[in-house]
Specification:
single chain; about 550 residues; alpha/beta; Rossmann fold; Helicase, Ruva Protein, domain 3; 4 domains; 7-stranded mixed β-sheet; 22 helices; elongated
Length: about 550
Amino acid sequence: MNATNPTRDLSPIDQVNMHIRAGKPLIWITTQEERRTMNHVMALLTTSERHKSRPIYHWAVSTGLGPIAVDETTRAYRIDPDGESDRIDCEDTLIKIATDGESAQEPRGQEGFYILKDPHPYMDDPATARALKDCLVGLPGKRRTLIVIAPALGNMPEEIKRMIAVVDWPLPTAAELRALLDSYILRLREKKSHIPIHLDESEQDRMARALLGLAAWQAESVLNLAIVAFERLDIGALGFVIDQKAQTIKASGLAEFMPVGSLPPLGGMPNLKTYQARKAKSFTKRAADFGIAPPRGTVLVGPQGVGKSHGAKTFGQNWELPILRLDVGRLFGRHVGESEENTRAALALAEAVAPCVLWLDEIDKVLAQSGGETDGGTSTRVFGTLLVWLAEHTSPVYVVATANWIKHLPPELFRKGRFDSVFFVDLPTAQERREIWSIHIARKNRAAGDFDLDALVEASKNNTGAEIEIAVNEALENAFFEDSELTTEHMIAAILGMSKLADNSPETIQVLRTWAKEIGSSDATATETVTDDDAGLVFADLGQSLADV
């Protein structure tokens, strides 16, 4: 057990049990899976010798407050079996619980567990918050315990947050999803369904891993969709399942799931490619047995358009790991506490999807306001949540953060233990521009050798990779409208005719270069040459090891 935080090694339901035994008056479980969480809580309360003698009550805004009946033999439960619930709101429910059954003869009042579902929208009401505080102050020692099951804490006053026990209920693990899949297949077979099922043991493991990052009910929904789409359940549905998961995660508004797939070659950045090949070995079982700590992450800093986003994606491609792209700007919500809840939910999602690459896109956006002067300290709290997680998480999540500007990147972000490396991505060198021109010409189904690459490299001095890509597209369009074939002259005209970043913001680029030297960052665009073929040989050898993580 962890010596400094004994709850870290406990399962969520064991944490709940620990807080009950410690006499906590309120245990607030944050979860996206109400049914699964409720089943675990009820199993604890109805089977533990310490708890099963106490009656259980249930409240929801749709049902009011009423008893839960438990079958003594099967331990199955029913909410409000006789329809005797009091149709009272959240505030009145808390007032009732605070003094339930108390009298001069019975000062301790009624014993019991009170399970409240989704009271979080009412936490910004002063009367409701006061009623909750009365419970927290008055219930200790009276064997009345509140257990909240809700997706968030809501706009709860800070002084109340400090008085409660919060248990974060994670999304299902690979083992739990495998059990869910086994149960799902068993139910299909028991129904004598006409749906063919052809999954061997290893394929069932792959299918379960493909569902990582989904709640149990979402996983079942995706499996249902796969059966409707294919009229069978076999490994051929794996790609469909992954696509549906990506859509589900994107719909959450917090992140974008990018499965392992092919990317266009990365032009330049030879040192970054070398680093990726070297660090990939740290994921293997052999490295763990040797005592190597899993790698934690990389920061890519540089001007806009130099390829930082593409570089971030190659971590996932080369290591054969999915990418979870987190736009930190989308974490911020309108309501008090919503931004912090979004941050915790997004990080929990990354841990559920692991092993994966978590791409923090344009992290400087959130840090630009982290002084907290204009948003009541929300940015500071979000940043603080990120920093703590970066330092303490133990899941196989490799974090790649990209940033365009360094003014708001504080020194604590680069403290050892949060990131392994910082790479400065400068304007491409001549050799890198040659690679970039060749890549984009090839993507237009032309042979790079048919063009004067020396002239293109010279014409694009101090241009970014993004500007070269735009020039190729513009040149191709001009050639089409001229009813001619694409020529070197078309591309030179396009690149010379555009306004480039190096001319518009030379001071910004110089500030970035100076900063990079001062902090001792690595140079992604150094002159050392590593070809894609060389790096590919290393990654190919590591593919199976990473798949087994």
